[in-house]
Amino acid sequence: MPVRRFLISLLTLFLLASSVSANAGELTLEEVRRVFPTAQSITLLNGKVPAYAVRGERGQLGFAFTTGELAPISAYSGKPINTVVGLGEDGLIKGVEILHHEEPILVIGVSDDDLNTFIAQFVGKKTTDRVRVGAHRRAGYVGIDGITGATITTMVLTSSVNKAVRSVAEAYGIPRGRSPAMPGFGPAPGAEPQESAFEEVPAWQLLWEDRAIELGVILLALLLLMAILFFQDLLVEHTVLFHRLRVVYLLFTVFFIGFYCSAQLSVINLLAFFHSLTGGFSWDTLLIEPIVFVLWAFVAISILLWGRGVYCGWLCPFGAAQDLISKLANRLGFEGYRLPQMVHERLWAIKYLILIALVGLSLDSMVNAARLAEVEPFKTTFILRFAREPEFVIYAVALLAVSAINSKFYCKYLCPLGAGLSFVTRFRIFDWLRRRRECGKPCQACAHQCQIAAIKPTGEIIDNECHYCLECQVTYWDDGRCPPLVEKRKKREDKERRKAEAVIASDA
């Protein structure tokens, strides 16, 4: 019965969401006045493209319509942004105002002034303009400024407005056309013909072209990581080389992927993706952030091959930053503090509880989910670069600082993204982390060295928690650190010593 009630509730939520979408195109006079302040009346046109004719005291003002009806493109939240657009008979956009959205980035971290400044850039643009975020220097395009940290939102909003404006313009002959639905609209005798439509290039395609260099660097880095994973047994035998290579890779992850590309993956990405599957999936939306798309593609492959640890241990900028801080603290002589095993295992549950809460909140509103998702310090650190309210900065800095005494504290106990990825880890194909029969019985060398404490006292590696740092494999092959190998080495050395002594004795 509880399962049945849950399914009914879930179905009800989706039906409500559908009804909202169905009414996305209905406008009131009050809403139209947000783009035509002097509007006195609106009339729904009967043409094939839903729009309203707007009149003022002196006659026709133009047309009003919604992007939710004409161009519902899934945005960062997995749901479209609904705006009202005012288009004059002269072919100029008179205004754009947001009616409804569930974009978390527009609620947290982006001010109303930022948003108003962005949408104000559409005013005065023509129906024939190819408006693009950041395309100021690209021939044939009209560039507008985006919002830092809201790439997907602004790109989708721009594409929606462009598509909706073009649809209305072509359907009702704007500018200088005659509306088939409303007699009396139209050009003066001898008007000029309407400019021909142009071929629309997907917004994501332009971004991929613009970020070709960054993409090339990321692809090379991922190829290197694949090589590290495939040849890990050979690499970890060379301890110094491996440790230097790992530190360099972690620095690359922090500064290039994190700060330069702002490509830190988030649990919000996961939630938005699953919501988009039920509310208008679009590859165009996923492709808008090239680096993020490539990283998620790699995660999807690597998580099935080796588990979630490859991303968490090598490609997560915040995780890499914590790892580097921990290594530096050890170099400076700070001894790490490990929680008792029982407490450590209980604290693991926190990140799973956070994930469950996020999923539940997202069913009602992505905005509410985004507020809880602030448990992730990623946006504060890598997108806004600590230029934020003090409480967010203190939280992010504190998590980085605590990793100096308890390595990767945030990753172990609080990260909902890691919790989400761990569910797929059980389907991994390869298990290349080697163990000996002595591991855990009685040897605890690897367990004491594991920064995640992802090795049971009995010796088994906990795959859902492992970050694939390969430190246990370094120990596995090191006859100076692995007790079973140390014992074998000593026996071998003793045998060679006795043999040498025997040779000396016989010569004497």
Looking across the biggest beta sheet, what order are the strands in? Answer: 1-2-3-4-5
The parts where pLDDT drops under 50 for at least 5 residues are 6-24, 176-191, 193-197
N-end to C-end Cα span: 91 Å
Question: Which sequence of SSEs, written as H and E, runs from N to C?
Answer: HHEEEHEEHEEHHHHHHHHHHHHHHHHHHH
Biggest pleated sheet: 5 strands, antiparallel
Radius of gyration: 30 Å
Give the rounded overall mean pLDDT.
85
What is the strand content? 5-15%
Class per helix and strand makeup: alpha+beta
- Assign an overall shape: elongated
Counted by DSSP, the helix tally is 23
Helix percentage: 40-55%
Q: How many separate structural domains?
A: 2
Query: Would you report the number of β strands?
Result: 7
Short summary:
The protein is an alpha+beta fold and 508 residues long. Helices cover 53% and strands 7% of the residues.
